[in-house]
Amino acid sequence: MAADLERALQSVSDGVREIVLDSPFARALAPDHLRDATLLYPASGGKHLRSALLLWSCGALGGDPQAALPAAAAVELYHTWTLAHDDIIDRDDLRRGGPSLHAAFRERAAELDAADPAHYGLSVAILAGDVQHAWAIELLAGLADRGPDPALVLRLVRDLEGPVLRAIAEGETRDLQFAHQPVEAVSEDDILAMIACKTGALFAFAAAAGGAVARGALDEDPQVAALRDFGRLAAIAFQLRDDVLGITGAEEQLGKPIGSDIREGKRTTILRRAWIHASPDEREVLSRALGRHDADPAAAAAATEVLLRLGGVEHTEALARDHLHRALQRLDALPAGRHRDLLHALAAAMMDRSR
């Protein structure tokens, strides 16, 4: 199944990239910095997990994944604008193994002899994210040209721009606020609810939208509801695993700086578990790096060692496995077939981030 999954993911990636990179919208973008910024992340690869989730959910309920391809590209672009803004909020200069959008255009500011390169990079990244957002909605609206009922397409647009966007913004804001609260004041349930919003909302939408394209309805079908639950739970498992890799992985594996979550003061389940079991001296070690953007590598490494020693990683991995198990149970409601098998394999692969 692993080889079949790889081939299927590559097919999804090729289809999405063709729509995004070879399109009148992209060719019309100007000036060149805005065009290049808007296309930087789509051209750099990415896993296209949300796109695959949408297309295979459509296939699992008997629909034609090709008819849903514009929606899959829309979801990918929607995810991309959130990355552009998230990298600014988190002050991350690395994304997908290369410069983040604002970092890349901080450097390209020299082409204009800009007086404030950092501000120019941030400004271009915000504008590119805005364009990606609008482009995603244009693509999703174009789904009606492939056969789905325009009323359903309008409902998908309203869902994405209403409840989904509110949830993403809520999750991002709570993530920011948690970093300014005492670690012990943020419960594990608070953290999981934040992840369900920030990461889970778009995954859940992608799965439900794919099912809705197949069935012609977003709300009334219990199998579409099962897909929505599957997407949300799989996303939480994915994010928990991502948090683990932020502590234990390699920079080239994660695509962003290792230790950035510690320096940002992110309230993860790893940190919370370790903090409540830490001695005063161990909390002092954690505090030397936690929320300190200027923490040196030695301080970050010492904090990481405490997190590992106190069982935060093992606890979070167990939480991730539990959410994955619950996600896979939702697939039992779907008809047996290749696309259900692909969804099962995709969820499992989202937990195996070693490749």
Structure, described:
The protein is mainly alpha-helical and 355 residues long. The mean pLDDT is 92. The protein has a two-stranded antiparallel sheet. The chain is globular and about 65 Å long. Helix 1 packs across helix 4 (49-60) and helix 6 (101-108) crosses helix 7. Strand 1 and strand 2 form a beta hairpin. 45% of the residues are buried. It has one domain (2-351): Orthogonal Bundle (Farnesyl Diphosphate Synthase). It has 18 helices and two strands.
Count of β-strands: 2
How are the strands of the biggest sheet laid out side by side? 1-2
Tertiary shape: globular
Report the CATH superfamily. Farnesyl Diphosphate Synthase
Q: Measured on Cα atoms, how large is the radius of gyration? A: 20 Å
The domain count comes to 1
Gross CATH architecture: Orthogonal Bundle
Largest sheet: 2 strands, antiparallel
Order of helices and strands: HHHHHEEHHHHHHHHHHHHH
What is CATH's topology name? Farnesyl Diphosphate Synthase
Helix/strand-derived category reads: mainly alpha
- The helix count comes to 18
Indicate the CATH class. Mainly Alpha
Helix content: over 70%
**Percentage of residues in DSSP E strands:** under 5%
Mean pLDDT: 92
Which parts are unreliable, with pLDDT below 50 for 5 consecutive residues or more? none
The N- and C-terminal alpha carbons lie at a distance of: 15 Å
